[in-house]
Automatic annotation (TrEMBL):
InterPro entries: Sortase (IPR005754), Sortase_Class_E (IPR053465), Sortase_dom-sf (IPR023365), Sortase_E (IPR042003)
Transmembrane feature ranges: 7-29
This protein's UniProt keywords: Hydrolase, Membrane, Transmembrane, Transmembrane helix
GO function terms (MF aspect): hydrolase activity
Name of protein: Class E sortase
SUPFAM superfamilies hit by this protein: Sortase (SSF63817)
Active site: 119, 187
CDD domains in alphabetical order: Sortase_E
Source species: Knoellia koreensis
């Protein structure tokens, strides 16, 4: 009996160690690897964006192939160096590589709702501190030709089934859009998928990338 209890005890200790290692891998190592991949993607996008745009670049934006990185997201409130790649799609493998753009929602700067999702924990956790965003904060989406500057308007917490938040007019399914919105979604609370934390932002201004952003646009807000 003592031998059996000893074996069971050893197995429980081993199982506990395995579980701790798995948690460490989820919370730490996935961040390390994902951040490396995302930094490489941003560097590649910077190079691509620096090349002269084709004459057709000013035409109506075209659909982005699934899985392709097409923009860089910058949020001063989340840090002076905060930059995350935006990829087309919201499958788990895409979210592991950056911020995902909901299929069939508007592209940056287009009338409607440019809706994106990101992890709050693991895999680089791009929206880990999404709850720190405040009304008036700037959210900059950089594409090959344009900087789109959105301003945070509000936030809410909803159930995962509340898909109306990414409708062309947020929270008004079926309504015809006339404004340019951006919606950011993430799991809530941290380390749980029971709810979703939603941030709504509205396009304030757009600037040609070749001319750069006005001074101070990416300044970290006081108190951040």
């Amino acid at each position: 009996m003592r031998w059996s209890l000893g074996v069971v005890g050893d197995l429980l200790v081993t199982a506990g160690l395995v579980l701790l290692l798995f948690v460490a891998w989820q919370l730490w190592w996935t961040d390390v690897t994902a951040n490396r991949v995302q930094d490489q993607t941003i560097a590649r996008l910077d190079r691509e964006f620096s090349r002269p745009a084709p004459a057709s670049a000013n035409e109506k934006p075209k659909a982005v192939p699934f899985g392709e990185a097409f923009a860089i997201l910058r949020i001063p409130r989340l840090g002076a160096d905060y930059a995350r790649p935006v990829l087309e799609g919201t499958s788990l493998d895409i979210l592991d590589e950056g911020v995902g753009h909901y299929k069939d929602t508007a592209l940056p700067g287009v009338v409607g709702n440019f809706a994106v999702a990101g992890h709050r924990t693991t895999y680089g956790r791009p929206f880990h501190d999404i709850d720190k965003l405040q009304p008036g904060d700037k959210v900059v989406v950089e594409t090959k030709t344009t900087y789109f500057v959105y301003v945070v308007r509000s936030h809410k917490i909803v159930l995962p089934t509340a898909v109306e938040v990414i409708a062309p007019v947020p929270d008004k399914p079926g309504a015809k859009p006339t404004e340019r919105w951006m919606t950011m979604t993430a799991c809530h609370p941290k380390y749980s998928a029971a709810q979703r934390y939603i941030v709504f932002a509205q396009l304030e201004k757009s600037y040609p990338r070749a001319k750069g952003l006005p001074a101070g646009t990416l300044a970290v807000p006081k108190g951040a």
